[in-house]
């Protein structure tokens, strides 16, 4: 739900307002927060309030992301899913407020404080949105010089200096828009690469559009050129990890690998082993991407497992040596059995410790019980001796009385 705007009489964030608007958090920087406080009438601003985009001029809003190569040509251009603030931006539009803002005018602020960095050249790294879509594509063009791959050169990406990214130090944090706003965004995002990459096999060379999450590269394996398509994700600790790879040689033979191990697809698995047409590459990659990779087992603590029975993937997860790599659930049958064996081993270790403790407690109880029995036996013997002595004393006294009477 959109946060309410703190500008007086602004209805952004209310349930009665159907129009969805992006809001920006008040910056944490004291100087910028002072500008916002002087600009907004009759409001004591702090860094937990929000102001909607309706109160900012268009020059303060960044709505497109543009990338250039070394030659200055545009190689990437797309609209942001939500607008972002330029550094130094502050609200200036208050058409929905009946009171004037003369009491809180910017004229009271020195000229040095009113300046903002609109002409500064910011060369910081561009932060693209995290929610990339699967149908985004890299577009590769045709090259007739090589039969497999050519001109796989690196690009020097630069940020559009006319639209620098938001400075996080100033605290301008754009908020998430609703699903209704996201529907207006384009369904596909195209990366236009100036240095072309061609994909083909045999005598045919064609341009293909591969899915966004895949990358293409060339490698020489066994003195033969191969095209390698890699699928990288960041699952643990936000570290990019190679999970799947597809290798196509010059003859069109396709090989699959998951977690750095070769996948041996069966005839009924649906994975083609021979490339008939270069245009089938995107469909093959998408089909392979949709198949779930085995999540494996995370080992922690002291685990009694033979290293010959398991292997470690590139993301630090362990799998059984019989892992099928591709599975319908989270784990394959072999990795489930491995996890069950590990859990049984842990339970046995815990139970063994419990038995040992119980035995120790039992021995202590037995010792205390023996001491108590001995004490009870000695007590009974002492009581018996005391009774005998009392009887003997009474007998002697009686005999003495009889003698005295004679």
TrEMBL record:
Chain coiled-coil ranges: 339-399
PROSITE patterns, per the entry: ZF_THAP
Metal-binding recorded as keyword: yes
KW Zinc (keyword) present: yes
InterPro entries found in the cross-reference section: THAP1/10, THAP_Znf
GO MF, any single term: zinc ion binding
Pfam families, sorted: THAP
Transmembrane segments: none
Keywords: Coiled coil, DNA-binding, Metal-binding, Zinc, Zinc-finger
Domain THAP-type: 1-94
PANTHER family for this protein: THAP DOMAIN-CONTAINING (PTHR46600), THAP DOMAIN-CONTAINING PROTEIN 10 (PTHR46600:SF11)
Protein name: THAP-type domain-containing protein
